[in-house]
C-alpha cells in the first residue's frame, strides 16, 4: 500500500483549507463557484463504498459539516454535493454553493467553461472564514 | 406540514423500485444509464443538511446500499453519487453506474441529450434484480 497523496490534478486546481479528522479540505481555484472538495486521506480509494462503514460515516459527517459551513457563510440558493470521479479517480466529494446568478445555473458546474481565479486577498479571507466555520479543522 | 409526495417531475421520469426504511427508490426511465434516485419520504426536505443527524445517517447508509447493489449487479467502471436539486428541489440523491462506453462518459449524465426508454421486459427484470440486491426493500 502506497502513502496517501492528493491527485496532481486536484492539487493543481485547488488551495488547501485544512484537514478534518478524515478528509483534506480543498477550495477550488474558481471564484465563480464557492466549491469545496473533500479528499479522505487514505491511499487507493476510488468509490465511496471502498471506505469501510466507519470511514464512510466519518466522511459523510465531514461532508455535512462542509455543507453547513457553506450554508452558514453564504446562504446559497442550493447546495450541490457529489462524488463523481469520472475524470480524477481518487475519491473526492464536491460540496458547492450554488446561486441562481452563477455562471452555470441551473446546470451542474462540471464542464461549465473556464475557471476564474480568485483575487488572492479574497481567497485568503474566504479560507479563513471556512476554517472558522468548520469545526475540528487543523492545518494539513 | 404537508404529507410526503414524490415531486411530479421525478415521478414522471422514473419507475418505482421500492421503499427502504427512509427512502423511496426510483429507477430513471433512461436505459442509457443504470440510474437510481433515492428520495427520503419526509415532506419539505431540500438540502441533505435539512435532515436531522439520524435521518442523514440513515439516508447515507441507504445511498451506500444502492451503490453496492449497482456495483454487485453491473461492476461499473465508476459510480456517480450526487445530490444536486437545481432543477427539482425536493431532496433526492442520484446513484448512477457509469461505463466508459455510455452516452455521456466522461461527462456527468445530467443534460446529456434525450433519455432512451427501457424495453419493458428489460426494465422489469432490472427492477427485480435491484429488489433482490437491496436489503430491506419493501413495496412502496
Write the layout of secondary structure elements.
Two copies of one chain form a homodimer.
Chain A: H1 8-13, E1 14-19, E2 23-28, E3 35-40, H2 53-74, E4 78-83, E5 93-98, H3 120-133
Antiparallel strand pairs in A: 1-2, 2-3, 3-5, 4-5
The greatest interface between two protein chains, and residues involved on each side, is:
A-B, 31 and 31 residues
**How is the main sheet of chain A built?**
5 strands, antiparallel
Proportion of residues in β-strands of chain A:
15-25%
Number of helices of chain A: 3
As a whole number of angstroms, the C-alpha radius of gyration of chain A is 14 Å
Oligomer: homodimer
What separation lies between the terminal Cα atoms of chain A?
21 Å
Mean pLDDT of chain A: 96
- Category by helix and strand content of chain A: alpha+beta
Order of helices and strands of chain A: HEEEHEEH
Helix content of chain A: 25-40%
Shape of chain A: globular
Low-confidence stretches of chain A: none
State the total count of DSSP E strands of chain A.
5
Amino acid at each position: 500500500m502506497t502513502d496517501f497523496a492528493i491527485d496532481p490534478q486536484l492539487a493543481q486546481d485547488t488551495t488547501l483549507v485544512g484537514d478534518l479528522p478524515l478528509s483534506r479540505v480543498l477550495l477550488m481555484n474558481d471564484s465563480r463557484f464557492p466549491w469545496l472538495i473533500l479528499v479522505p486521506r487514505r491511499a487507493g480509494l476510488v468509490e465511496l463504498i471502498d471506505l469501510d462503514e466507519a470511514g464512510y460515516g466519518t466522511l459523510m459527517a465531514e461532508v455535512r459539516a462542509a455543507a453547513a459551513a457553506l450554508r452558514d457563510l453564504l446562504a446559497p440558493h442550493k447546495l450541490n454535493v457529489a462524488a463523481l470521479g469520472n475524470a480524477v479517480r481518487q475519491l473526492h466529494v464536491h460540496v458547492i454553493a450554488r446561486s441562481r446568478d452563477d455562471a452555470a445555473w441551473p446546470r451542474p458546474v462540471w464542464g461549465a467553461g473556464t475557471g476564474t481565479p480568485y483575487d488572492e486577498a479574497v481567497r485568503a479571507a474566504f479560507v479563513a472564514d471556512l476554517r472558522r466555520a468548520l469545526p475540528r479543522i487543523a492545518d494539513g
